[in-house]
From TrEMBL:
NCBIfam families: PRK00522.1 (NF001808). It comes from Peptoniphilus stercorisuis. SUPFAM superfamilies: Thioredoxin-like (SSF52833). GO terms for molecular function: thioredoxin-dependent peroxiredoxin activity. Residues 17-165 form the Thioredoxin domain. Keywords: Antioxidant, Disulfide bond, Oxidoreductase, Peroxidase, Redox-active center. Coiled coil: none annotated. This is Thiol peroxidase.
C-alpha cells in the first residue's frame, strides 16, 4: 500500500487490516487518563475514525463531522476517534468544539491500535488517516486508508456502510 504524508512516502507499522478480518482488541488512553479497552463496545457497530492530530484542520473537520453524524445514528453504533495527541489536548479540543457524542482516545502510549490495525507511520509515530468499521460480531466490514494523509476520508461511503449494518 502506498501512503504519503505531505507528498512523502511513509511506511506503516503492523499488519494492514482488511474487510473480513476479526477486529483486533486494543487498549488506548481516555481523556481522563483511564484505560480505553476496545471490548467496551462489544455488541455494537463501531466506527474507528483514525487521524494524525486533532490540532490540524482536516483532522478537526473529521472529528467534528463524525460527532455531528453520531447524533443521527442508532444507539448501537459507537464512533471512536483515535489520534496520538495527548489526552489533555484531546480533552481541550472536545471542550472547545463541543465534541460530546463520540469517544476520543489516544494511542500515544503504546501505539496498540496503530500497530494492530496497521495505521502507525514509522517515520513520525503519528497515525495515518482512515476509517475502520466493525460490525456487531467484531468483523471488519469497511476499511479506508487515505492515500495522502493530509486529505479527507470518504465520510459518505463509510456512513453508508455503517447504516447498512
Amino acid at each position: 500500500m502506498n501512503i504519503t504524508f505531505g507528498g512523502n512516502k511513509v511506511t506503516l507499522a503492523g499488519k494492514e487490516i482488511k474487510v473480513g478480518d476479526k477486529a483486533p482488541e486494543f487498549v488506548a488512553v481516555k481523556n481522563d487518563l483511564s484505560v480505553f479497552d476496545s471490548k467496551e463496545n462489544e455488541g455494537k457497530v463501531v466506527v474507528y475514525s483514525v487521524a494524525p492530530s486533532i490540532d490540524t484542520p482536516v483532522c478537526s473537520l473529521q472529528t467534528r463531522t463524525f460527532n455531528e453524524e453520531a447524533a443521527e445514528l442508532r444507539d448501537d453504533i459507537a464512533i471512536v476517534t483515535i489520534t496520538v495527541d495527548l489526552p489533555f489536548a484531546q480533552a481541550r479540543f472536545c471542550a472547545n468544539e463541543g465534541i460530546d457524542k463520540t469517544i476520543i482516545v489516544s494511542d500515544y502510549k503504546d501505539h496498540d491500535f496503530g500497530t494492530k490495525y496497521g495505521f502507525l507511520m514509522n517515520e513520525n509515530h503519528l497515525l495515518a488517516r482512515g476509517i475502520v468499521v466493525v460490525d456487531k460480531e467484531g468483523i471488519v466490514q469497511y476499511v479506508e486508508y487515505v492515500p495522502e494523509v493530509t486529505n479527507e476520508v470518504n465520510f459518505e461511503k463509510a456512513l453508508e456502510k455503517v447504516k447498512s449494518l
